[in-house]
Amino acid sequence: MEIEFAAAEGWLHNVWLLIAVPLVSAAILLLLGKRADKWGHWLGAGSVGVTFVLALTFFFQLRGMDEREGVELSLFEYLPVAGLKVDFGLLYDPLAAIFTLLITGVGFLIHVYAVGYMSHDPGRRRFFGFFNLFVAAMLLLVLGNNFVMLYIGWEGVGLASYLLISFYFDRPAAATAGKKAFLINRVGDAGFAIAIFLMFATLGTTQYDEVFNGVGQLTGATVTAMGLLLLLGACGKSGQFPLHTWLPDAMEGPTPVSALIHAATMVTAGVYLIARSHPVFDASETAQAVVVTIGAITLLIGCIIGCAKDDIKRVLAYSTVSQIGYMFLAVGLGGAAYALGLIHLLAHGFFKAGLFLGAGSVMHGMQDQTDIRRFGGLAKHMRITWITFLLGYLAIIGLPPLSGFFSKDPIIHSAFERHGWSGWVLGSVALIGAGLTAFYMTRLYVLTFHGKPRWTEGQHPHESPPVMTIPLILLAVGSVAAGGLMATSVPGWLEPVLGEHEEHHARLSEWTVTAMTMAVVILGAGLGFALFRRGTALQEQPAGPLVTAARRNLYFDTLNEVVFELPGKLLTRALVFLDNRGIDGVVNGLAATVGGGSGRLRRAQTGFVRSYALSILGGAVLVVAAMMAVTLS
Amino acid sequence: MTTDIAAETLKLPSLDYAALAPMLILFGVGCVGVLVEAIAPKKARFPVQLVLAVLGIAASLTAIVLAAGTEKVTAAGAVAVDGPGLFLQGSIAVLGLVALLLISERSLERGGAFVAQAAVTANSEADRDQATRGSGATEVYPLIIFSLGGMMLFAAANDLLTMFVALEVFSLPLYLLCAMARRRRLLSQEAALKYFLLGAFASAFFLFGIALVYGYAGRVDFAGIHAAVLDSPNDIALLYIGLAMVAIGLLFKAALAPFHVWTPDVYQGAPTPVTALMAACTKVAAFGGLLRVLYVAFERSQWDYRPVLGAIAVLTMLVGAVLAVTQTDIKRLLAYSSIANAGYVLVGVLAISKAGLASSLFYLVAYGFSVLAAFGIVTLVRDADGEATHLSRWAGLGRRSPLYATLFTFLLLAFAGIPLTSGFTAKFGVFAAAIEADQTWLVIAGVITSAIIAFPYLRVVVMMWLSEPGESTPAVSLPGALTAAAVTIGAAATLLLGIVPQPLLDMTENAAHFVR
Amino acid sequence: MDGYLGSYATLGITLLAGALVFVGAFSANRVLRPRRPSVSSGKFESYECGLDPVGGDWAQAQIRYYVYAYLYALFAVESVFLFPWAVIFDRPGFGGAAVVEMAIFVAVLALGLLYAWRKRVLRWA
Known about the structure:
Number of strands of chain C: 0
Number of helices of chain B: 21
Largest sheet of chain C: none
Membrane topology (chain A): Multi-pass membrane protein
Structural class of chain B: mainly alpha
Subcellular location (chain A): Endomembrane system; Membrane
Helix content of chain B: over 70%
Oligomer: heterotrimer
Protein name (chain A): NADH-quinone oxidoreductase subunit L
Keywords (chain A): Membrane, Transmembrane, Transmembrane helix
Number of helices of chain C: 3
Number of domains of chain B: 1
Largest sheet of chain B: 2 strands, antiparallel
Mean pLDDT of chain C: 81
Domain NADH-Ubiquinone oxidoreductase (complex I) chain 5 N-terminal (chain A): 79-128
Structural class of chain C: mainly alpha
Largest interface: A-B, 33 and 47 residues
């Protein structure tokens, strides 16, 4: 199928505003400095609100069109030189449209929430500046019409994420977490960059349409390599195995950051990347197999570690890791499952943002306590937070008719449908994951809101102000309603991008899978309720090897240390030695030669007109002589 | 007898006034400027001259825009109006306008950067008096307008004699302008005298070259020379020696090694706004003339002059880059940087192709904007004795004035050719054109020297940001509206041409065709 | 007296004649003059009128002389163009246009004079 985009016309011509508005707002906030302290947060939130309204108008514009393949708005070309050119432009298609709505919609709610959450923070203006920068970069990421722009946005969100994780840079843990996120992302980004180089080298372009149309001409090995390199980039950004270790640490940033960047939007960029480059993955069985494997492994890892953590934000972070695992699993399955992965992404954006904001609200009322062993019985003290958190919790475990049910069940079902024995394995893993999710989320919910208070001295839990609770309520409404709505509408909406897929005959019927899932979920939730109904010990208790391993993040940090850090350190030491002795010697020698030559030549610049005239005359004689020599030879 | 024959064949040349308008307007405005000097009351002169000059350049620019697309030879073959000519004239007008903003700044110093009476003996009582209290000179405006008019004519001259006249018309005012600095009068006068003596010396070469070429071709117009290059029965040595000498005159103006020796001294001594004007506009005009001579008149001897001029390009890049390493004065550093940049333009010129022509035009404009902004910032870093140009005084500037240090860092990165600045796009263009024309050796030399010259730039960056400001670090003056505008325009152009170069690239591409 | 170098023969003869006159004059002087060796101081000076040719070689000249020299050059150049113009301006096809052009040319030069006058260069003070 030949892919072609129409040129943007009419109102869609202004699609660039989506990026420009938050970018200008960020520039104002960061450049004006203290002068903007008084009103900066409202500008920050307002600009995202305006962007959301714009996104809505564009969405309806696109919906009213007959051909919804997407429209392209070319901005400028950059240095078209001999087979190497990048046409910078924007692509507004159904896929970009739903991401734009998610980013600006959820983003707006979280911005409003942050106005209240950050009200006592002296760095609030700076926070909103970075936050707006993130929104602009994220929109650039989803709206670009080529992989280079995607990469620029990719790095932009990476930068914003780094700045916001280490927002409290005076706390060593936050500074380290920021660096960790930045460094681990470099590994993934290097893969992504090489994939782009590969496109340049083999296809001479990075435009989406040209790349996708050209995939057919490439050899299988090249496509597989391209797919795996893109996947490496996606794993880095989305916190997938084996590059998932930065995401839980990223919770050191302010909670709105965790909600927007590290739950709802940025970490799903990997899913976007794979969905966007689906023709590449469709063309390579191997790459797809690797994607589903990674998704399955990650979703299990996330669940297992999530069961053993005691920090409310870290449990949610591992939950994010595991839920994105589901999305990877879905987009790896290909075909009709692409849309399922994206639906889960959108639904997850709502309920996970709501859960994080709820956690933030709890922390707000509990003097920034994050240890769930120190909560308990909060339902009475913060009604709104409790109800909204409850809805988010029910959504994530997949209780019908909340959104998780509509988005997760079909993924589990599709996993079973994968051909051969792998379908049974993947389906079972996804099923076990659902049970574990129910278990650890129940544990989290029960320990926080029910049972007897286990607070530290001097806690006076209270409900958060309306500026925080209203976004919570709206997100809760989204968690309840969004799943059902999207499950029916999104696959058709995305058809122009992902193509039509017919349901092939089912190995297991839908009802069977639903029944199995419900059974597992009820089992997990019941177990969690039974175990933690009466609270838990205040200190970490000795436990069996599996729990200990889970508490230690399944030793992935240790693994990283041994596999990457140690050889890295040795390599660095060797390189430093080589650098000091070898390269520096050569460089310094060269520099000394140039410097010495410069000093000597400089003496020719005497300042006397007569010697200058002599130099000109000498030059003239040489030029004339050279001309004659060239001519006569 | 002979007079009768001459009279019979003599006819009034046809003049295309629309095509000549850009230059005529400027010369007319220059004359009006002299008139204003003669009769307007002293107090009114500055505003009148400023408005007159700005309007004059704007009118000239309008005439250029209106003439866009013209391709003809007019005024009895003396002036060629074509794509490159109009593009160069337009660049000269725009860059000249920005330089005029710098020149007109009077809020940094009472009376501006110029003294009213440059002939007063330096360091005498009267001289010190006028340096501290005297009002500024307004003669600079007609001088600059005449100079810009001369540059435009130089870029459009279609025969060697017109070219020579234009050369003198734009050089003489520059000699005078160099001598008028308010501070460091002795250095300024020395610069002017050096520039004048060496300029006269180079002009002599140019004139001698014209004579020899005429001896060979029997014509001085470029089409005639082009026709004669392969067909004339005369001794070919005349042609080559003549070409070499004409080239020397042009290479001198463009500051290419080994004819660059005047540049550092003159750039340092001249008032900084005038240095900016020379670095931006004179470079455009000089390369405009060189392009026309090489592409139109001597195109058919390219196989002969290419290796020689190639060697000069390599030498220029090397000398500029290597000598920049040990400079201790920011203006001298920028002077050597401009020498090296002239070498890069020559690399583009020597492609002798459409791409080479287009990329050289682009380079000249891109460099012109950057260098104007850079010298604009130099005028701002000052203490009680005027500008603090010694590099040691710039240490720690990043702490004192982060905005200007950031801007200057950005401009230095542009000079070094870092991507996303106009410097990268421009260098990329000339190198690409040279490779296409099989002049890879020039590109190799260009890349090596780029690496060398990045060192002095980065040294300044390191000094500004990583050193603690000392006692002697001067404050950065708050710029007046004019300097602020000039620096903003220059820096914005540097950024835009780095990120969105395509419109200007297209423009140079469309302009790159000489009429013969 | 013909051939390529023929025209140089005249030059050669002139040079030769000059040398002959020079040598002849000095020889005549030597033969005719009275011989009176003396030690009086004035006798060995270059200029017997009494002007001392020895002294510093940096003599300052009045700057005004230069200004007058420039103004003179201005009008000398003008006349160089005026003569050929005067020969042809009444021929067909020239007429009015030629008069206007020359008027502009003269006006530009006059502008220079006006400027010099207003700057009080013409006053010797």
